[in-house]
Amino acid sequence: MEQVLATVLQRDPEQQEFHQAVTEFLETVKPVLDRHPEYRNFAVLERLVEPERMIMFRVPWMDDRGRVHVNRGYRVEMNSAIGPYKGGLRFHPSVNLSVIKFLAFEQVFKNALTTLSLGGGKGGADFDPRDRSDTEVMRFCQSFMSELFRHIGEDTDVPAGDIGVSGREIGFLFGMYKKLQNKFTGVLTGKGVSWGGSLIRPEATGYGVVYFASEMLTLIGQTMECKHCLISGSGNVAQYTAEKVLQLGGRVLTMSDSSGYIFDEEGIDIAKLEHLKELKNVERGRIEKYCQRYPHAEYVPVDPDLDYNPLWQHEADCAFPAATQNEINAKDAQHLVEVGVKLVCEGANMPCVPEAISLFAENDVLFGPAKAANAGGVAVSGLEMAQDAMRLSWTRDEVDTRLRSIMEKIHQTCVDAAAYYGHPGDYLAGANIAGFVKVGNAMLDQGVV
Ligand code: GLU
């Protein structure tokens, strides 16, 4: 295993995020390799850490003033052993090959946990949609798809949304794909419900995170009722995490964006959350504006001189990091332990650094890792693909019931795998091991390809 990691480091020395994801994974799957030498004999790990295909391309586009910009587009097709590549597209200035590879790597095991037949991939661009007009975003999406279309397809690779890509972008991307291929297929998920989308897809990641957290609480004889929760982020995942916490009787104290966070001591209730959704999804404004409507709430801007986020210093029972990778460092984790948080469940992908995860384990804080906890989004994407293939659509209740049952199964799978391989209660080990065994076995069955 050291050799596998050494090769990864030597091949791509600058890909820090990818190294982090691979290291965390390798540390937990060792017991499987010790019991099953066939994975070593057929170089399953070596193959897992090397993408099946990586596509990088130029994305030129013209802004509203006639200036031409050039961004870089990516699609990393990581692993197709158990199904077509599946995973989101991220449009954010921080996007680079390392970020897309780490996300694609995580996606492989996350998708394996969903119980559906989905391989793993991820893509995106270093484009910043913030402060761009709808027409600029449309031209960018059309240019992006004018290259991506030749690499994807409903049985090959099915992209979806992620940070910076939601309903608006999926619409523009789908329109261009359809025009270029002259085909109406389920090539993207997260589509509008009137043109092939699934009900509950926007809610799915956030709802799934809270279903997973509820399962974790059930095991220790508790529920979400009256739990005080810290949530970071205010995008799709954070919004629906908050909504489900409220539906299950919990209290939401914080939400944030890249400029700062709001702390509402009285709790962000459903009406306030609806206002916040309007602010973020329709006005596309900053979270600070929440305090104009609700002046009793406190707004705390990001302080670049601080090496921790004060959001995680509020007293609470549960924390749901739902903003972005590495947002909880060791100091933040220490603060969470000090304020009495008993459960951390990851809404974003890899939001906790490895030292933070170790601190949670040392202090008996329950930890739900992203690949298991936030798999509800891609799971409902899988359900969207199934509905598209049948050319019919299920009701809200039907999709929500399936989502809930998938999250319960993922939880049980993690618990069982962790116990079977000698790490009872370790959800991170359980998720990595169960995902690895499913994908690894398919790779063994299919030979050295
Ligand atoms: N971007 C989401 C994730 O991180 C969803 C991917 C999808 O629906 O394909 O899982």
Structural account:
The chain is of the alpha/beta class and 449 residues long. The chain has helices at residues 2-11, 16-35, 37-41, 44-48, 97-113, 134-148, 167-181, 201-219, 236-247, 270-282, 290-293, 330-338, 354-362, 370-373, 376-390, 396-420, 427-446, and strands spanning 53-62, 68-79, 85-91, 120-125, 157-160, 228-232, 251-257, 260-263, 298-301, 318-321, 343-345, 366-368. The strands form two sheets. Strands 9-8-7-6-10-11-12 form a seven-stranded mixed β-sheet, sandwiched between helices. A five-stranded mixed β-sheet has the order 1-2-4-3-5. Helix 5 (97-113) links the parallel strand 3 (85-91) and strand 4. The chain is globular and about 60 Å long. It starts with a helix and ends with a helix. The site of glutamic acid (GLU) has 10 residues, from strand 3 and helix 15. Glutamic acid is lined by residues 86-88, 160, 162, 189, 349, 377-378, 381.
Strand order of the largest sheet: 9-8-7-6-10-11-12
How many extended strands?
A: 12
Distance between the termini: 20 Å
Radius of gyration, taken over Cα atoms and rounded to an integer in Å: 21 Å
Bound molecules: glutamic acid
CATH H-level superfamily title of the largest domain: Leucine Dehydrogenase, chain A, domain 1
For the largest beta-sheet, the strand count, sense and barrel status come to: 7 strands, mixed
Q: Could you say which structural class the secondary elements and strand pairing correspond to? A: alpha/beta
State the domain count: 2
Number of helices: 17
Mean pLDDT: 98
* Helical percentage: 40-55%
Topology as a string of helices (H) and strands (E): HHHHEEEHEHEHHEHEEHHEEHEHEHHHH
Low-confidence runs: none
CATH topology of the largest domain: Rossmann fold
Q: Globular, elongated, flat, extended or rod-shaped: what is the shape?
A: globular
Strand content: 15-25%
* Shape-level CATH architecture of the largest domain: 3-Layer(aba) Sandwich
